[in-house]
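Write out a record, fold above all:
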Amino acid sequence: MKRFNVTGTCFPDKHYMVDIHERIEIIAQMVKRGDYFCINAGRQYGKTTTLYALRNALAADYEVYAISFEGLADASYATEAHLAFAMLQLFQMDAMKKICSVSKPVQELVSNAFDKYEVSSQIELGKFSILLSRMCKAATRPLVLIIDEVDQASNHDSFVRILGLLRAKFLDREDLPTFQSVILAGVYDIKNLKLKIRPEAEHQYNSPWNIATKFDVDLSLPADGIERMIAEYKTDHTGIPEVDGMDAHDMAQLIYDYTSGYPFLVSRLCQIIDEKKLYWNKEGFLSALKVLYLENNTLFDDMIKKLNEFPELSKILQSMLYQGHSFTFNPDNFVFNLAKMFGFIKLNESGKASIANRIFETRLYNYYSSNEETNKILTQGAIVRSRFIMDGRIGMDHLLARFALHFNDIYSKKDGKFVEEMGRKMFLLYLKPIINGVGNYYIESKTRDETRTDVIIDYLGHQYIIELKIWRGNAYNERGEEQIAGYLDLYHAKKGYLVSFCFNKDKAPGTKTIQVGDKTITEAVI
């Protein structure tokens, strides 16, 4: 029986997975053209699975060495001669794999060289270069080199020298035999390797890998692909009550809406639903989502590690989250490159950056709010939590009234800049202990800007739509009321909520009820 897998390579005969043959065909065409390129994506974004499928697809027309730097000892990077021998050793190991497509003449060249240099564990770079040319000449079909987990080498100058060797061979390819294609895979863009070795600004983009073709293949999983995957799961589990009622289309769209197709998140949510025997519907999905938000896993651990390593990255993400700042992606800005490279952000067609998916967004909110545990507004939310929950519903009118009271009591002496920059953060802090462990919330990225944020709360099957808005005058506020009324139509809701952070000294704080057509809106003025 197949299962959902989130550890290591996914295999179609063992695991439920989205069909990726179309992307493999596109990458195979790049190999056919003789491109050298890098596959860069965030942690657990399906790179290794993609490379495994690619190797199988290339086997009929190419000889392929597919090696990985994962687990190489630090001693292997001591010099370029040590790293060259380590690669020779990896070639030897790769030839033992069941899917090996490398011909005997090439294997013999590698084996003889390995025996020759085994005692010293070094092969001088010039001799290694000659060996690579001999391997490519002896191959009965064009030879392709795939190196996974190149991040493991990114702190070592020896790898930069190996890249320089491969670059030189690429430039001489008309005169000397060399690889048909070289594919490097990892999180870091190879042009930033020098940055990790020498962080001075003048070295940021000094990389020997300027021969690489741009790689634009989207590795995220599309909604229709997710639908076909879980439809297969449904067929395999016919007769199980939790599965029989599944609407594969609606379920796939729900998964995609929260993950934006991030492979690990898609598989992990499906895995949780399956293993915990939850129903394959919205309620079951939200239950799985709560489990995911509360767990530690390698993806989330790596996210937090990156935030601690790069405080500039953390600063820009908080600006996007709490102030609603919208940035146009600038490839020359190193922090933007980091955010995109690590998978924190995605770009729309106009180049605007937003947080990559709802799950990342909520996890980031939870992380930043956990650093605010002594915050007065969060404490107030925790103290009065029980007052807002009635018969399995949130008394949102009462909650907004109390938030307005607490916020004004605590922060009334703060200036308008504080309110504008921190108001929405304070509301989310107040909200967190009230729904924590029971409900979920996310921010609607499509409507977020510097003046507006829409918070969607799911709590025990009930949904609450709240707009957080910066006050810009009466006419502007009336447009906001009309906006949320229109927005409610998308959620088939008759009631919504508006929190207005107001800088008008004559505006009295408190709550009021507004009727816009057939929609009822409770507004809290802060």
